[in-house]
Every structure is written in C-alpha cells, then in structure tokens.
Amino acid sequence: MGVITTPSFDRRASASLFSRLRTARGQADPFPIYEELLSRGDVSLAPWGGTLVTSFALCDQVLRSRDWLEPDKRWRERQGSGTRWNASSSREMSNTLAALNPPDHTRVRRAAGTFDRAAVERIGQTVTRATDQLLDSLAERLREGEADFVSLVGDELPVATIGDWLGIPSADWPRLRQLTHDQVFTQELLPSASQLAGSDAATAELRAYFMALVSDRRAHPGEDPVSRWIETWDALEPDRDAADEAVYFLVLFVLLAALETTSTLLTTMTLLLVESPERWDMVADHPDLVPAFIEETLRYDPPTHVISRIAGEDCVLGGLEIRKDEMVHLMVGAAHRDPAKHVDPHRFDPLRKPAHLAFSGGIHYCLGAPLARLEAQILLRGLIRRLPRLTLVRRPTMAPRVAFRRLLNLDVAVA
Ligand code: HEM
C-alpha cells in the first residue's frame, strides 16, 4: 500500500469534528461525528498532533501488536515538564498496570492474578445480594413516581461489588466514588487545566487513603485480595516499602478501572432497555438473551471510546507514516460502528455475532471483564424478572468527556 504524505483529511477538518464532539450534543450522540470520521478513511490526523484510528481492523491490529506501546513513565517524561503528561496525577498513573510495557507489565500483571471461576462465583453472591437490595430501593421509589437509575443502582452496584471484594468499609464508598469521577480527567483525551488540577487533588487523596489501607492490611492480614497481593509482592520485592508501593498502585488502579466503566456499562445497558418497549419485551420473554444483550451494549456504546498507544518504531499505519514515539488514538466507539466490520452498525441487535474492543485487546486486555459481565448479567436478569416494564422519562445528560463515557442521570418510570 502507498504511503500518504499529504493526507486528504487535514488537521483543520478534524479540529472541526472534534469541537463538535466536545459539545453537549456531540457527547449525547457522538455517532454521526464518528461516521464522518470513518467516511474519511481508516486513519486521520488529530487536531493536536498524533493520529486517529477509526477502522475496527486497524484498532484491533494495534491493540494486539507488540510494536505499539503504552505511554509509559519514560515517554511521559520526554514530553516535557509543562505538559499534561507531567501533571502529578499523570506521573502517578504512569506507575499503574495499564501504563506499563513489557517486561515491567508482564511482572506486575502476573502478580495481580485473575478472576478465576471460583472467585467469580464467590463475588457473584455479593453481587446478587447487593442487586436485590438496590432493586428494592428502585422499586420503592418507582411506586412514588420517577426514579434516577444512576444514583439508585448504576453508581452503587460497582462500588458495592469492588468495595466488598477489597474489604473497604462501606462508609468510605461515596468518597471513593467521587474521587474516581474527579480522577478520570487525567486519563481523558483533552483535559482542561482545571480538570487536571481536580485530578491531581483526587489522586493525592487516593494515595493517602490506599497507602493507609495497605499498611493496615500488612499489620492485620485477612483473606482479602490486598492481603494476598502483599504476600505476593513480599516474595518478589525484598524492600518492604517498595512492595507496599506496588500493592498500592494495584489497588488504586483496580478501583479506578472498576468503578466508572462498570457504572457506565450498567447504565447504558439500562438506557437501551428502557428506551425501547420492544427491547424490554424481547429480553423479558427470552432471558437467555441477557449475555448477548450485554455484549451488544459493549459494542453499541462502550464505556471507553478511546484507547491510546505510542509507536515503538517508525512505521506506516493505514497508509500514514508514523514516527517512533508518536501517539495514536484508537477511536473504539467509532470502530464499533465500522460498516466493514458490522452490517448495519447503527442498529442495536443482540442477535448479531459479537465482536468488540470494549475491554481492549492483546496484553492489556481488561482483567476485570468477567466481573463487569457478572454485574451486568445479574442486574439485567433482576430488572426484567422483578420490575414491570420501565420507560425513559427524559434523555440523560452526559458528563463532559470524550474518552470515558458517563451518564449523569437516567430517569425512569413504570411504563
Ligand atoms: C464495563 C467495565 C469495564 C470496561 C469497559 C473496562 C475497560 C478496560 C480497558 C479498555 C482496558 C485496557 C486499557 C488499555 O488497553 O490501555 C482495561 C484494563 C484493565 N481493567 Fe478494565 N474495564 C472494565 C471493568 C473493570 C473491572 C471491574 C476491573 C477490576 C475489577 C478492571 C480492571 C482492569 C485492569 C486491572 C486493567 C489493566 C490491564 C493491563 O493493563 O494489563 N476493569 N479495562
């Protein structure tokens, strides 16, 4: 394939698309904008430098290839002290699993372990109990009129699940959830200075909280994952302070990775369910469609719309020359609507063959995917089994973000 040296899609054109993407309207429905991006080719130039990748095949290829790297600590340092990459929150994130490259990544990922079937079954009991309680409160509120699904259920179930698993006191859950909302901006595509400052402050508070948690577990070990990680790291790392720090980065990242993403999956899934009576009836009449409904939600509107990587070497991607160290943004939300991958991509169809990159791919494939799926399945089964058909009262408002989707409200009522 020839190399494009003067891309037909210039940075000015993509700047105009991105300014639309950053409006409330664009965030409520980014898909027409993604369609324009897709129509311009598999790759295009980002307004701020770097490259946008929109085709499913190329996003998949980049995620699976060892030639593409995470923006790690050394890369962030090279960007210079005045840049967002050297904000204190970004430097802190550079020590967490998803910002490591091999061989560091291999070592830390191995130490993190996985959710095996037995662990998922154990956590499933917590999720079932929490879901029952949350649906009780939703049902009670619905008897009086409309109810906000986000505050009653969508934001609560992930923190109850991960909080219980990590052994975090429930009194601390609301604060941790708020800090997570503030922290995410350092991982956003284009954070403003004030969003970055909020993220820096949240990160500092999270560090203090989780370092204290780790030292408490060292003093009083239990059956929880934090105590297990301390044991694992003590065997890997002779320096106790370094071991504690490694465990802290893992706990921090697990919390950040687990909360908002899962809330967004649960809420988007419920939005797709309540906005269409046919969909509600279809799943209620065929509960065996629950897993497929969730996979299609993850394709149709995934919680994470953008995943970024750095070129390990000079290369050509989609006909475009990319230099070593340059960043590519995998526009996963757009790639999921790529007509070359999915027929009639804008149609929500749980019966289609599932294929999505919502949990990434390759060596960074999401460690928590079984847990997120478990929560979504238990909740969806509970909704259709326990409640009469619900309807959407008004369109939800989206948080002002491009990469990490978040519904601020989801107002529902009995149909
Ligand atoms: C619907 C919910 C979730 C979504 C959409 C999601 C999405 C993702 C994505 C896209 C990545 C990869 C980022 C990259 O490639 O740079 C990732 C990594 C990760 N996720 Fe999730 N996640 C979800 C839930 C969870 C949960 C519940 C946990 C923990 C219990 C979790 C833990 C992790 C961890 C530890 C990684 C880092 C893996 C690595 O870099 O090796 N995630 N997730």
UniProtKB/TrEMBL annotation:
The keyword Metal-binding applies. It comes from the Bacteria. Keywords: Heme, Iron, Metal-binding, Monooxygenase, Oxidoreductase. One of its GO terms (molecular function) is iron ion binding. SUPFAM superfamilies: Cytochrome P450. Pfam families: p450. The keyword Transmembrane helix does not apply. Signal peptide: none annotated. InterPro entries: Cyt_P450, Cyt_P450_B, Cyt_P450_CS, Cyt_P450_sf. Belongs to the cytochrome P450 family. This is Cytochrome P450. It comes from Streptomyces finlayi.
